[in-house]
Amino acid sequence: MSTSSLETFHDVSGGTDFRPALGQLLNEFRLGRIADRARLLEETAIQTHLGQHIQAWDAVFPEFPKYSEKRRTLLRLFKRERKDTYIRRLVVDALTGLDTENRVIVNPATVEGRQAMYLARALPDFEIIGTDIDGRWEALYRRVCRKSQTNFRFVQESIFEPDLGRRPTAIVFFGACGSVSDGAIDYGIDVEAPFLIFRTCCHENIGGNVETVREWSMINRYLAMKNWQFSRYKKRNNGFYFTDKYNRDAYPRSEAGRDLADSETFLQVARSAVNSDICISIIDLDRAIYLQEQGYDVLYRDEVFFAHMRGST
């Protein structure tokens, strides 16, 4: 990312206040204006309350992926790869030619390591470290697809207990389920990573929650099956997706968010998140504010975050 581009990012993001949008969307939630069948109310609310944040994103970054599918449908969910491709472009654009001695990128929740290996090919002068609690998927992908990069390595570890001795230039992830996203965000903050570029997902699984508001839709049924499996992980208490560090009382994450809502409200928001992009945006706006409180400038759009530490190069 050129110096001028980074300056533009800070000029735009430095004046961004997510608190009004968070308050407005919480009001929409409290009034029950979520999860309408046609998603038209949701679309209007997001365009109205997040419009200036969408414009801020577009003023800095390339054109955001377009979707013809309605919000909160299975077809749209299955096309998240468009966002991941877009995030890879953001990472490559941000780090190519960057003048830094610490040329390390960590990809927590890497699963099979496919995205991390792509970054290793695109950024050959960086070391890419993929981490995950379960190493079987990465090993299987490497053997079946015969993919390998000399500047990529996999480390088996839980994001809830990461190696804080690393000092990566960037923390990058492509959809970390529920509170795994918060663990990865805190990891980036704790190691003082200048860049955090990522996509969130499975917002209903924050705070140890596996319950959802049921609705007759394909996406609701699909995610109900996923949450049944997640409930089994939770009962085993093996640290895959849940930890006491991110229990219900850990939300809202930001101080400003706690002025607007309590943990019970956020739990109810999470339980409606499988049906509502308003609820997803509430959880993510709180995360954006939290990052700002920790010293980062942030832009956010539709589950995608770009954050850079103020004063870092």
The largest sheet has its strands arranged as 3-2-1-4-5-7-6
Classify the oligomer.
single chain
- Summing up helix and strand content along with how strands pair, one would put the structural category as alpha/beta
Structural Rg? 19 Å
Overall body shape:
globular
Average residue-wise pLDDT: 94
Main sheet specs = 7 strands, mixed
Number of helices: 13
Strand content: 5-15%
Low-pLDDT runs of 5+ residues are: none
- Give helix % range: 40-55%
Q: Give the termini separation.
A: 10 Å
Notes on the structure:
The protein has 313 residues and is an alpha/beta fold. Helix content is 47%, strand content 13%. The chain has 13 helices and seven strands. The chain has a seven-stranded mixed sheet, with helices on both faces. Helix 9 links the parallel strand 4 and strand 5. Helix 2 runs antiparallel to helix 13 and helix 6 packs parallel to helix 7.
